[in-house]
Amino acid sequence: MTDESAPIGVFDSGMGGLTVLRALEAALPGESFIYLGDTARLPYGSKSPGTVARYALQASEILVERGIRALVVACNTASAFALDALAERHPELPVFGVVEPGASAAAEAPRGASVLVLATESTVAGGAYQKAILRLRPDLKIHARACPLLVALAEEGEHEGEFCERVLGHYLHGHTAGGSVSDPAVVVLGCTHFPVFREPLRRLLPDHTVVVDSAATTAERVADALVSSGATARHPGRLTLLATDGVRRFTRVGGYFLGRPLDAVELVDL
User: Fold this and answer.
1) Which of 39, 79, 241, 256 has the fewest CB atoms within 10 Å around its CB?
2) Mean pLDDT throughout 145-168?
3) pTM for the full model?
4) Burial of 157 (0-12, 13-18, 19+ CB in 10 A)
């Protein structure tokens, strides 16, 4: 029988997955969460698929040892390359990634429309979003752009201002009005760091463009699954934060992603 008091485990390569945690807390009030940021080895987005899968399995073991009842992979790169391996390693747990929920939301675009995916190098090169969206809607035109500088900016807490908008404009070049992929119907934030750029992106994109936040879509998927199984908590929850390096910086910068100051962060070794 599922222990409804057991926490939900969430992990990411760093702090970006705190945007998923923030959405999960809103969708599942009263739940307890354990969040692990593998800050010693970020970013995952420039690593090989085999390395990402190995790191993800190691991170999951830390959370499983702490008695979680569900695992949320709050990293697009790990979701793309490690989800099947995680599900095989932990058949006793429901395992959720961020790619499929975001792809499902993007698949609601009008027939024949253009969809632009903004993600890390590995996620773009691996084609995770492109394949997932086209499986649902083969009529859509999918374009993807690797945005490595956005990860660095987000990790530094820089998500507004002139320089930030110049970087965003660089990555959107050719994908807005007058470009080779003008006026995308949907822009997918295919990295969990990227929701912090939602407001400046909205200023740069056409009014009709829908911005899909993979953090929000993932939280909805997890909430739906737990509610339908009757495995939701009905008591005040608590949050445990873990990091593999840079605890002081994690505590300082993580608040940008979670939307509030962070309490104590525990250092763990993988």
Assistant:
1) 256
2) 87
3) 0.89
4) middle
